[in-house]
Amino acid sequence: MTGSPFRQPMSGAPGAGSSPGPRPSPEVQDPWGVRRAENLLTSLEGILSARVVTTPLGEVSEVHVLAQAGLQPKQLVRNIESALLAHLGLKIDHRKISIAQTADVKPLEALESTAVRDRSLQRAMLFENVTVLAGRRPHRVTVQVSLSMDGQVEHAEEEAMDNIKGRVEAAAKAALSSVDRLLGDHSLALEGVRMVEEFDREFVFIVAQGLSGRETVLLTGTAEIRESAERAAVFAVMDATNRWANLRRPS
């Protein structure tokens, strides 16, 4: 290939007594953009960062790439060669490309995904579903709650009056029953449920009792009402019993 996309444009020699022209802008100094090539390379799968080094004449002398561990260096080099040729018309010797790999640097999305997964694994109980159905009698509803622990799913249901207070209390009772069934020790009982409004938001606040030997332990939990009050009641129960369930989690 003759020439390089990174070669600097040559300006005419100034004549005697000529005044210097305006200072070239960065785009004129780098018409094809080394940064453009570096951005192209970092868009390739598995490449975390890239640096393109050029000679004073604009020829590419080195391409340094930091990539995720586990990828084949030869395949990465081929991908780099193909991308530069297809997008910039730049053909370079594969010997100019150096690959460094690391297991410590990850894209932000990967870090967030790992953090969410690790956080969820720390919880003993996981939410599955809550459903409100018409009751067997007029003006009554049945609230069904499903929770899981270590892949085991338990369901419980409670019937209540068809009003907000009744549905929220039924959801909390059903959630506690699901926790009890998952633990298998029948150690929990609901003491009370209340909907409170603070800081221009609504919350469900629950109080439960846990039987520990001959003593009872007070457990409290809260959850903001977002999708529904019944769903918030279930999350309030999970908030109150998460530590309790973790201590009694089957090995």
Q: Could you explain how this protein is built, in words?
A:
This protein has 251 residues and is of the alpha+beta class. The protein has 2 domains: 28-104, 2-Layer Sandwich (GMP Synthetase, Chain A, domain 3), CATH 3.30.300; 123-247, Double Stranded RNA Binding Domain. It is built from 6 helices and 9 strands, in the order ααββαβαβββαβββα. Strands 1-2-3 form a 3-stranded mixed beta sheet. β1 (47-54) and β2 (60-68) form a beta hairpin. It is elongated.
Low-confidence stretches: 8-22, 24-28
Q: Could you say what the CATH architecture of the largest domain is?
A: 2-Layer Sandwich
Instruction: Tell me the major beta sheet.
Output: 3 strands, mixed
Per DSSP, what share of the residues sits in E-state strands of 2 or more residues? Answer: 25-35%
List the helices and strands in order.
HHEEHEHEEEHEEEH
Q: Would you count the extended β strands for me?
A: 9
Topology:
Elements: H1 26-29, H2 34-42, E1 47-54, E2 60-68, H3 73-88, E3 97-102, H4 108-122, E4 126-134, E5 140-149, E6 152-161, H5 164-183, E7 188-198, E8 201-212, E9 215-224, H6 229-247
Parallel strand pairs: 2-3
Antiparallel strand pairs: 1-2, 4-5, 5-6, 7-8, 8-9
